[in-house]
């Protein structure tokens, strides 16, 4: 593979060089990524555009769309899903980490946000579970296991959004989404059948089940985005392949 750069040295290049050299380097890195993908079937360390190139690319795309030279982004094409995935990639792991920290506090003996352990049990355990535990909380190892499972789920979601495009990782993210959605769906009918007489049923219907459904949906958005990205060329910011900044004026 041969790369040749031809240009004329002019006074204006003194000003343009710091900008153009970064665009040029980003183009070369993209070409090398594609060459690595074509020869090895994978990219060990995908390149990432410098901040200045990403800003320039985004600005030129917006100007081109404003002037009518490019169509506006179509939500059906996945741009909307991309924005949702970026939000979910941050919000979902953050909420999971917060819930994991809460379980860790319970495992260490804190009843927060309740005033006592029996009061906490009334709000986080069903009536049948409280009867089995004599009105107390589950043993600390069980609570620690839940906290660790939440930590693992948060790590999977975050890695699926930002890490290597591994099929196993995508499947794990879909599995996390399925678990949370199933948890939210299964408990709602039992809450309604129970008549909402128990404090736990009211909290579950108002908070726990909707939160599980939201976490499951957010994880599914991230997993879907990761699955779509795995079918594309090497990693890069949105609209990378169609970038007017990178694709023009660089010679052969």
Structure overview:
With 252 residues, the protein is mostly helical. The protein has two domains: 13-74 and 236-247, no CATH class; 78-230. It contains nine helices and no strands. The relative contact order is 0.14.
The SSE order reads HHHHHHHHH
**Helix percent band:** 55-70%
Shape: elongated
Which oligomeric form is depicted?
Answer: single chain
The computed structural class is mainly alpha
Mean pLDDT: 81
Total strand count, please?
0
Helical run tally: 9
Question: How far apart are the termini?
Answer: 12 Å
Low-confidence stretches: 75-80, 233-252
Strand content: under 5%
**How many structural domains are formed by the residues?**
2
| Rg measurement, Å | 25 Å
List the helices and strands and how they pair.
Elements: H1 13-40, H2 51-66, H3 79-107, H4 117-124, H5 127-132, H6 140-162, H7 167-193, H8 199-230, H9 244-247
List its traits.
252 residues; 2 domains; 9 helices; elongated
Summarize this, please?
The protein is 69% helix and 0% strand. By secondary structure, the protein is mostly helical. It folds into 2 domains: 13-74 and 236-247, no CATH class; 78-230.
């Amino acid at each position: 593979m041969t790369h040749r750069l031809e240009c004329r040295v002019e006074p204006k290049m003194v000003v343009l060089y710091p900008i153009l050299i970064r665009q040029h380097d980003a183009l070369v890195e993209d070409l090398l990524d594609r060459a690595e993908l074509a020869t090895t079937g994978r990219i060990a360390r995908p390149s990432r555009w410098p901040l200045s190139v990403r800003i320039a690319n985004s600005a030129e795309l917006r100007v081109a769309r404003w002037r009518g030279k490019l169509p506006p982004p179509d939500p059906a094409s996945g741009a909307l899903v991309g924005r949702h995935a970026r939000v979910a990639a941050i919000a979902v792991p953050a909420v999971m980490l917060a819930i994991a920290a809460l379980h860790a506090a319970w495992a260490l003996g804190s009843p927060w946000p309740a005033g006592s352990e029996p009061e906490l049990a009334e709000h986080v355990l069903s009536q049948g579970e409280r009867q089995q535990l004599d009105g107390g909380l589950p043993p600390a190892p069980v609570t620690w296991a839940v906290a660790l499972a939440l930590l693992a789920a948060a790590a999977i979601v975050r890695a699926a959004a930002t890490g290597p495009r591994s099929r196993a990782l995508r499947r794990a993210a879909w599995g996390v989404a399925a678990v949370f959605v199933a948890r939210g769906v299964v408990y709602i009918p039992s809450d309604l059948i129970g008549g909402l007489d128990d404090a736990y049923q009211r909290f579950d219907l108002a908070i726990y089940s909707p939160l599980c459904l939201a976490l499951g949906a957010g994880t599914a958005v991230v997993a879907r985005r990761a699955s779509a990205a795995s079918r594309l060329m090497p990693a890069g910011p949105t609209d990378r392949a169609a970038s007017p900044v990178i694709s023009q004026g660089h010679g052969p």
